[in-house]
Amino acid sequence: NLTGIHKGEAAKLVGLSRVTTELTGAAWISGEVTTDQASVIMKAIHGLPDWVGDTERADAETHLLSLAADHHLDDLKRLANHVLEVIDPDGADELLGKKLLAEEQRAWDATRLTTRRCGDGTTDGKFKLPDADADVLIAAVEGIIAPRRSSLNEVRHGVDDFNALPRAQRMGLAFTELINHLPTESLPKAGGLAATVAVTIDLDNLRTGQGIATNTSGTTISATKAQRLACNAH
Predict the structure, then answer these.
(1) Do 61 and 24 meet the contact criterion of CB atoms below 8 Å apart?
(2) pTM of the model
(3) Which of 106, 113, 134, 217 could form a disulfide linkage to 129, CB 3.0–4.6 angstroms apart?
(4) Which long-range contacts (CB under 8 A, 24 or more apart) does 57-64 make?
(5) pLDDT higher than threshold 80 for residue 5
């Protein structure tokens, strides 16, 4: 009550006192940044990996302080989460690669496929796949229902009738064709190529297995995952 500060604000001040960084602390005291902005910046700086040096930390702090004047709090949080990419792009790339590798391992452990006979001539199923592997499946199925494809359309439907079916049904029918054309070397081809997911990766990342890669669906994967894909793909 003596300071005239609301209880919630006072609690934030106490929390900040435990993580205060010099530049942000000075900007906070002078009123250049709000308590919420200072909290975002300080947490971002303290959350940098141990291998980031004092000079780089100061650069990151200065960068975020300059952004605070022109960005709303939510935008500042987003930028703060990526500040390592600004001060050390190579280090950020390697760190993100490690995080993605751990995420991929968790996704691998969570992968499931369950099926159940419905008793009416159909089998119901449910699956959970890592994102990058699901991208391969979706690319293959979508390649089969592409307008230029004709063999699937002629099985039970004319071209126009098939294209008029709900997308989920067309995808399901294409999935059955995909299953019946395994292995992938026997998949129907359009334009001379089977359904393809391309991966873009820095050559050094591919050699070392460190860092990240991106596929044509926009999914980011670890360089280690890309190495495994390269072993079995063209």
Answers:
(1) yes
(2) 0.54
(3) 134
(4) 57/21, 58/23, 59/87, 60/84, 60/86, 60/87, 61/21, 61/23, 61/24, 62/23, 63/87, 64/24, 64/40
(5) no
